[in-house]
Amino acid sequence: MGFKVGLLGLGTVGAGVAQILLDATGRSPLLQSLELYRVGARSLDKPRPVEIPREQLTTDLQSIVTDPNVDIVVEVIGGLEPARSLMLEAIRHRKHVVTANKAAIARFGPELFDAAKQAGVYLMLEAAVGGGIPIIQPLKQSLGGDRLNGITGIINGTTNYILSRMTAEGADFGDVLADAQRLGYAEADPTADVDGLDAADKIAILASLAFGGRIKREAVHTEGIRNITATDITYADKLGFAIKLLAIARRQGPAVSLRVHPTLVPHSHPLARVDGAFNAIFVEGQPIGQVMFFGPGAGSGPTASAVVSDVLNVAAAMQAMGERATPVINPMLACSHSDFCPIASLDDLETRFYVRFLTSDRPGTIGHIGSCFGNRLVSLESLVQTEVNGDEAQVVVVTHAVREGDFRAALADIHASDAIRSVASVLRVI
Amino acid sequence: MGFKVGLLGLGTVGAGVAQILLDATGRSPLLQSLELYRVGARSLDKPRPVEIPREQLTTDLQSIVTDPNVDIVVEVIGGLEPARSLMLEAIRHRKHVVTANKAAIARFGPELFDAAKQAGVYLMLEAAVGGGIPIIQPLKQSLGGDRLNGITGIINGTTNYILSRMTAEGADFGDVLADAQRLGYAEADPTADVDGLDAADKIAILASLAFGGRIKREAVHTEGIRNITATDITYADKLGFAIKLLAIARRQGPAVSLRVHPTLVPHSHPLARVDGAFNAIFVEGQPIGQVMFFGPGAGSGPTASAVVSDVLNVAAAMQAMGERATPVINPMLACSHSDFCPIASLDDLETRFYVRFLTSDRPGTIGHIGSCFGNRLVSLESLVQTEVNGDEAQVVVVTHAVREGDFRAALADIHASDAIRSVASVLRVI
Ligand SMILES: NC(=O)c1ccc[n+]([C@@H]2O[C@H](COP(=O)([O-])OP(=O)(O)OC[C@H]3O[C@@H](n4cnc5c(N)ncnc54)[C@H](OP(=O)(O)O)[C@@H]3O)[C@@H](O)[C@H]2O)c1
Ligand SMILES: NC(=O)c1ccc[n+]([C@@H]2O[C@H](COP(=O)([O-])OP(=O)(O)OC[C@H]3O[C@@H](n4cnc5c(N)ncnc54)[C@H](OP(=O)(O)O)[C@@H]3O)[C@@H](O)[C@H]2O)c1
């Protein structure tokens, strides 16, 4: 029995997928049951790293998702439309869909999964988070016996690359970004990456799987890395921390807290050493404790590896299902939840903070800052006056875990007084 | 539709499994389709961390594996017999089997998998390697599109704990072992762990999955950590390496090389920072590049998490299969290969070496050592005379990647001359 794959997109990821499908040697024997049947792209004439016979190639993607011979549609064109409509159309034509499109899944997940459920087909998305890192299926299958409490990920390669270089070179954000763009590590419009939006898409997807409920994309509190300075990286390092853009989803009572922000990570934490374009996802659960998945967060080959693993899983499930009239879906591959997760308020979050003040070098300043925090029940782990230039001083404070609302109130009090000149930066600490 | 689980063993892992099965809240909804039906142990009266109704408990394990109501047998009694016979009997009675027993699988895998194939049932072993770390299913499923080239694992928690403490404290093997035994990190008879036998069982299993062929357990070249000294750890550290007991399986031409030995790991390698009782498995493949799975390598909860994930996968596959007369096996869960992997000779292995000589502090020694290596085409990365006590010196050599056979020949030449007093240690380097 053979399965026919219709591939939408022949760019970075699509070409990688085609390369694997066209060369099964040394890979899963199941690959031999797959046929790369039709391929869609915008241009028929572009040179490609993989040779596709001209008669298989089309610019008419609609004709692929409606082709009665196609069993599995792989969507790797990216973007919201026409990706969403093509996936919906494929599903309506009872084709299984494999996608790498985190933006579309984070926004249209409920619509797409409802459609898939109704049609009795699989909608798979291993490649949407963490590039080549196996994380979606492990969450569905391997950690099915666990009560998950938190997911903490470095899931955007561009920002991790930039922060790693800023750390290694003591360089500033703007310079490293420009260089990263030159080298192809950052896009011409870097917004989705550096402002945390891409990581927010991904943590919404992970949280949905980990906590068994749908997530509204807007529920993810998102801060990017544009304001991170070489100064903060240096101070953090002295205090024993690396600065990473973390995407965090945690159970918080009956609700889930969801956020993406630059974070101080203790050097001893496994995530602190995930550098460059690598990604890692750290999962906490009961009874497993802590596990981490580490690997290449993007790139043609790694992402294609994840896409193909989904295709193989679907093919295996189809094979096991045989020629049955009514499809039966394997619950370890499907996402069946339909309720939305309640979202915790950021104010109720308990976390540690790092804050750097610029102050005038006047007696009493430290005492005043300390008592503003104390009045709001914000207990401090350290408070250090670290550097003095002329009449200016810097005061770096690290708090114990406190309610975010209390911390913000204390900051407002400090602001309102004239004890400080400015708050140079506020970062959370894990 | 409900599935009945027969649990063989209610020790460390068995009790953990029972705890998960008896408390489904917050875990995979599929758990609700599972019933802990019967439990077997040696003693009916031992106090247990989990309450099992007396009528479910039996010492007659045979009656569980032949019980017509049992769908899935979980084998967590350990050891070779009666574990092997019970699993075979369960399979013959068309029950799916989930086991954590690396010793039995590494030795009787072919017999057990043949029986499972013939009976049309699953034989699952996620917990046999890496405790709670998802690695078996990711190898079968997530990396199915990859051509795997190598697996390098820290897959024995006891030895990693001992080496980590030796490193942190500058302590000697014997002292740390005794303390680890006192604290329950090492068994009274530590042979299986410290001599590398447990890691060898596990790498045989991983290699079989990664390279799609059966592995003869005897094919794993195995060296333990008894001879590692605080001195070597210190020298290695100065040279930029941690010493870890690695289990390594690599493609070597058309064959596979399999070995367990203490190894110098560069501080920059992700495995160098896997400390204490944690395990990690580093996988290299094309096109994925490098991925690493990190987590707790043993313990009641983590290991039970892995066992339960297998039970869930089997239940999901049974559910998807429905009430069919002839069972159809999902190839992503089964191990279908039946040929044995050809095994490479250790002599043909290309690897780097670290060697420490004790010599008399005589002029010409270093030159002589250097030329013995040179004559055998062993090229050196560094050669340092590191310490002199009275008339004794130590010479530490790190080679480039060389044929192991050539290196051994050079060592024999050096031995045969009177240039050195002894070879204090020989370790491989990755
Ligand atoms: N690149 C990565 O490392 C990576 C990692 C994880 C996930 N992803 C996700 O994978 C998806 C694809 O990314 P990519 O990097 O492969 O993108 P890409 O290199 O830009 O490739 C997009 C492909 O889709 C085709 N295409 C786009 N819009 C089309 C349309 N309207 N009609 C017909 N063809 C169209 C393009 O055709 P032409 O070639 O003819 O222009 C191109 O072949 C995205 O969702 C992305 O988020 C990518
Ligand atoms: N412990 C870990 O962290 C870990 C991690 C990975 C894999 N594993 C594997 O998991 C398996 C179980 O390990 P474990 O640590 O749970 O062992 P354990 O604590 O010694 O428990 C063994 C259980 O099996 C029962 N049992 C043993 N032989 C029996 C027999 N002949 N008839 C009836 N009952 C028998 C014992 O009964 P009683 O309680 O009545 O004596 C006990 O409940 C082993 O294969 C081990 O390699 C363990």
UniProtKB/TrEMBL annotation, chains A, B:
It is an enzyme of class 1 (oxidoreductase). InterPro entries: ACT-like_dom_sf, ACT_dom, Asp/hSer_DH_NAD-bd, HDH, HDH_cat, HDH_CS, NAD(P)-bd_dom_sf. Its cofactor is a metal cation. It holds the Pfam family NAD_binding_3. Gene3D superfamilies: 3.30.70.260, Dihydrodipicolinate Reductase, domain 2 (3.30.360.10), NAD(P)-binding Rossmann-like Domain (3.40.50.720). The keyword Amino-acid biosynthesis applies. Pathway: Amino-acid biosynthesis; L-threonine biosynthesis; L-threonine from L-aspartate: step 3/5; Amino-acid biosynthesis; L-methionine biosynthesis via de novo pathway; L-homoserine from L-aspartate: step 3/3. One of its GO terms (molecular function) is homoserine dehydrogenase activity. It catalyses: L-homoserine + NADP(+) = L-aspartate 4-semialdehyde + NADPH + H(+). Keywords: Amino-acid biosynthesis, Methionine biosynthesis, NADP, Oxidoreductase, Threonine biosynthesis. Its EC number is 1.1.1.3. Residues 354-430 form the ACT domain. Belongs to the homoserine dehydrogenase family. This is Homoserine dehydrogenase. It comes from Limnothrix redekei LRLZ20PSL1. The lineage of its organism: Bacteria, Bacillati, Cyanobacteriota, Cyanophyceae, Pseudanabaenales.
